[in-house]
Amino acid sequence: MGAGLLVGLSLPPWGVWPLAFGGIVALDSLLADQPARVRFARGFLFGLGWLGPGMAWMVFLTVPGYPVAVGTYAAYIGAACAAAGAGRRRWLGLPAAMMIAETVRFAFPFGGVPLASLAISQAAGPFLGVVRLGGAILLGGVTVAVAMAIRAAWTRAWKASGVMVAVLAVVVAYAAVAPRGSAAGTMRVALVQGGGPQGTHAGDTAPGIVLQRHLDASSVVPAGVDLVVWPENVVNVDAPETFATSAARKEIAAVAARVGAPVAVGVTEDVPDRPGRFANYQIMVNPDGSLGARYDKVRRVPFGEYLPLRWIIKHFPGADLVPHDAIAGKAPATLDSPSGVLGVVISWEIFFSGRARDAIGHGGLMLLNPTNGASYRGTILQTQQVASSRLRAVETDRWVTQVSPTGFTAVVTPSGHVVARSKVSEQRVIVATVGLRTGCTWYLQLGDKPVFGLALGLLLVARFDLGKSLLRARSTLLWARRSRVQRP
Asked: Residue 482 contacts by C-beta under 8 Å, 6 or more apart in sequence?
C-alpha cells in the first residue's frame, strides 16, 4: 500500500507529481518474478493505497459507496498487474495493462469515475502535451512507461531502458509539433463566484441565498464584457413555477442589461410533466430579458444527481440526499452566443473527455465548465477538477473557463496553464480575455479507440511474445514454399 500511497500523494490537492513514478517503480519491484495471484494481491493493495486518499471526496456523496468504489477499482489495478506478466516483458505489459484498466474504470460501472487517475496526477508534469495525441489514457500509459524505463535502468537493463527512453522521446517530441487549432478571435468573459461555505447541500441552505450571493458579486462586473458566466445550480426552481416565469430570471436579466452582455446561468428545475424528476441546465439570459440557448447536462453524477439501483440503495444511510433523479440531456454540448458557438460541459462532465470532444466537434470555440463543488469539504474534488480542466484544454486546444459558487473558479489556456484561480469560499469575479479557436488535435479527431487498441496489442505482444511467433510463422511459410519448389 505504501507504493500506492506515493501515487495518491502525486494527485491534487497534494500534487507532488514526481511521486507517481516512484510509486510505480516500487510496484514493479514487487511484481517481478511473482505468480499471477501474488501480482493481483499486490496490485490490489497498491490500488487501495492510491485510490483511498485520491477518492476520499466520495464520502460526502455516498458513505457506503466509497469503500465499494475504491475496492472495485483497486481490483481493476490488481487485474492489470496480474495480466502484465512476471518477466522482463512486464515492462511493456504493465503500461499497456494499466491503460486498459483505466479505460474500463473511466466507463464502468455507473458510467465510470475518471478521477484520481494517473493523467490527473501528471496535469502539472512535463508530459501533459501527449494528451493531444491520445488523451488521458495515453498520458497514463506514458507515466507508467517512464517508471518502467527508470526501473530497467535501476536493474542495469540498459538496452531495454534505452529503447523505452527513445520511444518516449519520439512520442513527446511528436506531441509538441502535432496539429493544433488556430486563432479565431477573442472574447472578454466575467466568471462570477458568489462565495460561501463548503460542505453544504441544497436542503441545508436557505432558499435564495446562493442566488443573492451571485447577484451581489455581479455588481462589480464591468460593462463591456462579452459574456457573464454563473456556476451550476445557482437558481433552484420548484414546480409549478418555472425559471422562465420566476423572479430570478428578472433579476438576472437586470444584470445582463446593466453589463450589456448575456448571462449564462446554471438552473435546477422541477419538470412538471415528469413528477419526481428535475432538469439541470445552463441557459443564456439576454440583456433584453429574453432566454437564449440552453444546454441540459448529459453526464449525471451517480449518487449525486441520480441513484443507481435505487430499489436497493435507498435502504442505506445517505440515500435520502438524492430523493429525485435528474433527466439526462441529449443535445450537443454547446451554447450559441453573440461571440460564436461555445462548448459547455457542466461540472462532472469535465472529467469525461468525450463530453469535451462532443462540444468542440459541434463547433465550440472554447469550453465553459460551470460547476458546483459546494457539497464537498476539503479540496480533493475541486483541485482534481482544475487538473481535469487542464487535460481538456490541451486535448482540445481550447481555452477552458471553470466557474464555481465556492471554488475553484479558474481560467486555463490551450497549453494547460492556469492563468487565474480563485480561493475557496471567497466572493470573487474573474474577468479574462480568452481566445476563440477552431481546428482539431489528433485526439479530437480520433478519440480513445486507437489508444485502447494499441494497449491491447502491446499487452498481447508482452504476454505471448507475438514477435517471435510471427517470425516462426514466417519461417514456416518460407520453408513450405521452398519445399514446393524443390519437389520433383
From this structure: none
- pLDDT tens column, 77-121: 999 999 999 999 999 999 999 999 999 999 998 899 999 999 999
Contact 398, 181 (CB under 8 A): yes
Read off the pLDDT band of 315 (50, 70, 90).
Answer: low
Do 395 and 356 meet the contact criterion of CB atoms below 8 Å apart? Answer: yes
pLDDT score, position 471: 58
| Cβ(322)–Cβ(344) below 8 Å | no
Cα dihedral across residues 268, 272, 273, 277: positive or negative: positive
C-alpha atoms less than 13 angstroms from C-alpha of 399 in its C-beta half-sphere: 22
d(CA 200, CA 292): 30
Please tell me what DSSP assigns to residue 60.
G
Q: Percentage of the chain with pLDDT > 70?
A: 92
Convert the pLDDT of each residue in 20-31 to its tens digit.
999 999 999 999
C-alpha cell at 33: 518474478
